[in-house]
């Protein structure tokens, strides 16, 4: 709704489905594509351009260019090459599902002090470099390497991966210190390297490595100050944080700092099941030898896959259903639905759970009043509602709201009025003549007439209508209980942010209508 609310009407309930329809369970598991790999040399062409190497994994025979995801590894514990193997569950999930993933191999040279990861945990220097120099050069290398890769994709037909990957939309992922770097890198890329193309960030247990983050003179504080408090430079890139509920190495603490101070659309998922900073098996950390990652690596793969699907895939009908499911995982009930499906018999090392989910922006949709003419046989209904958004300090178009209605009768009309920058009043009205139900021969009229329709049971029985934004509210629609009065019908009214970087936050209300 541009300055007045756009209305999307989803008025039909179809009982048809595709054999290969996307389902929530597709996310976080390996897809159909084989993996190809190459090592790319990144030359230095001038001051500030750090030379080095990238690993590049890409899907084979994907049918269309694979959107690029840049993955920032930690600098502590292991070399970049070993981190690549340790974080393979997330990387392979992305690549086998159609994304190309670029990762650091090494940066610098023998004359410029090469670095390939492996800084011992708790130390602040390596190979003659202190932590400030390492992090600064790491960020510079990832920036320059991303620019170089983009130039190869766009202009070098001899490039081995030419035609295989696309930089039209780019995602950034990182773990631990790499999770902090990922956020800063996304801001730099979006501001000057590939403006407007960075579409999503996933930060896994991000930490600046400081005991008191964002205070004093440390590199984490400086980067945070530059890219999170300078609102003139800040790009509202949707960002998704994952941290374990018992992360004692800074991941949960710093994810909370980032989440609270950012004004981008964002989600913070706190992993349960005793999850720690152990998103990959890392000795000398919080990893439990028996329990391993406590399944948080599976949660990482689900959210990363959903984020890149929702924000990087092209706007094509082929991807529509999968994108809607991805948005439901990120901004709706899909992640809870998947968590509820984890079996108690799942080994503790693979069992993942959700302790909490925080989302901004939020939308509240309040039903202020409604009236039904002739309650037992309505021919007209009016509904008044107010939508309120918590989105602040971002591009003006993100203030816009889309409204949608599910299962509304015919003849619907909508009137909207902006009350202030963040609130809209909505008036819906429609007319309808509900059909009479006719009992089938040999069946009880009471059984046919006096039972609510349970869309959850019907969906599960038919194997269709997995949760997604366009069908939001179906899972909570009818209770399915038998009544001694006439059946009632739910009409779902929803709202969501309309702009591309809005986060697709949802809210719904239901109006129960009696009919003959």
What does this protein structure show overall?
The protein is of the alpha/beta class and 516 residues long. The protein has two domains: 330 residues, Alpha/Beta hydrolase fold, catalytic domain (Rossmann fold); 152 residues, no CATH class. The chain is built from eleven helices and 19 strands. A nine-stranded mixed beta sheet has the order 2-3-5-4-8-9-10-11-12, with helices on both faces. It has a four-stranded mixed beta sheet with strand order 1-15-18-19, with no helix packed on it. Strands 13-14-17-16 form a four-stranded antiparallel beta sheet, with no helix packed on it. Helix 4 packs across helix 5. The protein is globular and about 85 Å long. The N terminus is likely disordered.
Strand content bin: 25-35%
Overall 3D form:
globular
Q: Count of helices? A: 11
Radius of gyration: 25 Å
Structural class: alpha/beta
Span of the ends, CA to CA = 35 Å
Largest sheet: 9 strands, mixed
The structural domain count equals 2
Q: Which regions have little confidence, pLDDT < 50, spanning 5+ residues?
A: 1-19, 438-487
The SSE order reads: EEEEHHEEEHEHEHEHEHHHEEEEEEHHEE
List strands and helices in order, with pairings:
Layout: E1 6-10, E2 34-42, E3 52-60, E4 66-72, H1 80-86, H2 88-96, E5 100-107, E6 125-126, E7 129-130, H3 131-155, E8 165-175, H4 177-193, E9 198-204, H5 219-228, E10 239-244, H6 251-261, E11 266-271, H7 296-312, H8 320-331, H9 334-340, E12 354-360, E13 363-372, E14 380-389, E15 401-406, E16 413-420, E17 423-431, H10 445-449, H11 455-462, E18 488-497, E19 506-514
Helix pairs in contact: 2-7, 3-4, 4-5, 7-8
Keywords: Signal
InterPro entries: AB_hydrolase_fold
Signal peptide: 1-21
């Amino acid at each position: 709704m541009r300055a007045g609310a756009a209305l999307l009407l989803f008025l039909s309930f179809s009982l048809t489905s595709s054999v290969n329809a996307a389902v929530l369970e597709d996310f976080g598991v390996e897809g159909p594509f084989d993996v190809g790999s190459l090592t790319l040399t990144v030359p230095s062409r001038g001051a500030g351009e750090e030379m080095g190497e990238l690993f590049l994994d890409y899907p084979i025979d994907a049918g269309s260019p694979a959107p690029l995801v840049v993955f920032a590894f930690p600098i502590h514990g292991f070399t970049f090459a070993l981190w690549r193997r340790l974080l393979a569950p997330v990387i392979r999930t992305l690549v086998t599902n159609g994304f190309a993933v670029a990762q650091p191999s090494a940066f610098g040279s023998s004359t410029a002090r090469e670095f390939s990861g492996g800084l011992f945990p708790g130390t602040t220097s390596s190979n003659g470099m202190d932590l400030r120099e390492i992090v600064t050069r790491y960020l510079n290398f990832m920036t320059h390497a991303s620019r170089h890769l983009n130039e190869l994709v766009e202009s070098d037909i001899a490039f081995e991966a030419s035609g295989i990957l696309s930089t039209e939309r780019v995602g950034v992922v990182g773990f631990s210190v790499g999770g902090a770097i990922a956020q800063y890198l996304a801001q730099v890329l979006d501001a000057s390297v590939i403006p407007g193309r960075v579409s999503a960030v996933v930060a896994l247990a991000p930490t600046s490595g400081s005991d008191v983050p964002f205070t004093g003179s440390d590199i984490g504080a400086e980067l945070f100050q530059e890219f999170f408090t300078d609102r003139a430079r800040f790009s509202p890139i949707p960002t998704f944080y994952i941290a374990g509920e018992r992360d004692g190495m800074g991941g949960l603490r710093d994810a909370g700092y980032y989440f609270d101070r950012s004004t981008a659309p964002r989600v913070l998922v706190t992993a349960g099941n005793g999850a720690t900073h152990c998103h990959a098996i890392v000795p000398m950390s919080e990893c439990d030898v028996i329990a391993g990652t406590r399944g948080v690596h599976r949660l990482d793969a689900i959210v990363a896959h959903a984020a890149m699907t929702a924000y990087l895939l092209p706007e094509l009908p082929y991807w529509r259903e999968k994108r809607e499911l991805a948005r439901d995982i990120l901004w709706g009930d899909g992640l809870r639905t998947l968590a509820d499906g984890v079996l108690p018999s799942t080994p503790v090392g693979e069992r993942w759970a959700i302790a909490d989910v925080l989302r901004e922006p939020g939308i509240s949709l309040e039903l202020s009043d409604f009236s039904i003419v002739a309650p037992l046989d309505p021919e007209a209904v009016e509904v008044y509602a107010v939508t309120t958004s918590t989105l602040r300090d971002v591009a003006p178009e993100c203030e816009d709201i889309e409204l949608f209605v599910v299962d509304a009768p015919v003849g619907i009309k909508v009137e909207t009025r902006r009350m202030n920058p963040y609130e809209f009043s909505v008036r819906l009205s429609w007319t309808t003549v509900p059909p009479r139900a006719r009992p089938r021969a040999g069946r009880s009229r009471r059984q046919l007439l006096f039972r609510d329709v349970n869309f959850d049971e019907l969906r599960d029985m038919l194997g269709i209508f997995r949760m997604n934004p366009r069908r939001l509210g179906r899972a909570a629609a009818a209770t399915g209980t038998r009544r001694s009065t006439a059946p009632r019908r739910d009409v779902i009214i929803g709202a969501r942010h309309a702009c591309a970087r809005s986060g697709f936050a949802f809210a719904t209300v239901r109006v129960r209508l009696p009919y003959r």
